[in-house]
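#struct-help
A.M.: can someone run this one for me? Single chain, 245 residues.
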Amino acid sequence: MNKFFGYILSILHYLYFLLVLIIFQPIQWLSLKLGGYTAHKHAVDILNAFLISTYYVLGCRVSFTDEQHVPTGRPIIFVANHQSMYDIPPLIWFLRKYHAKFISKIELTKGIPSISFNLKYGGGANIDRKDSKQSIVEIAGLGTRMKKNNWSAVIFPEGTRSKTGVMKTFHVGGIATLLKRAPNSLIVPIAIENSWKMNKYGYFPLSPFHHLKFTVLPSIEPADKPIEEIVLEAENEIRSFVAKN
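D.P.: on it. Structure tokens below:
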């Protein structure tokens, strides 16, 4: 029955999702041209609020829990497990006051209305996974912008999405590069639950009627800790939280 409703609701969801992307393409362009970074960011924030609303068409709901009082006066590296593309809009929207930027595949900077435009001009890092030197330079540039502007970054250290919700081992590289350029950054783990279930049948049909949960966990002050210890601590926090729920 879940799959039956998935076929019907997926069509409505994708049509709505595509409509939102098409509408916000010129809105982003105008915002950037007329109002610069600030206006463009507001447009992107609103875009992602609308993208979240497309989840409701599937009968899904989203909750974001933050009881940690994460500061806004310094760069933050938000470290999260990664389950699906549906992780992204809630993180952009709910972390909007932190100016959170993403590390994305360079292929995504072309051909996708609104999303490609934001990736090109939003201030994140667009990496070529086949070119390790280019990737390091891009991530380092993001770290420099974080330090200069008190921006934040969201990083998925697993490297790829978990299609079953089972977490993979976290990699150190991206976080280490960001910390080298923005050493005053605070590490803040975020546990993501249930977004993988939307794609359990693949991209069509999507699986409806799930509760996507995003929970901010206690922060980690890097201080003089080895990077491997920092990343392992973040991984263990998220893994332990997800296992309990």
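A.M.: thanks! DSSP finds six helices and seven strands in the chain.
D.P.: also worth noting: The mean pLDDT is 95.
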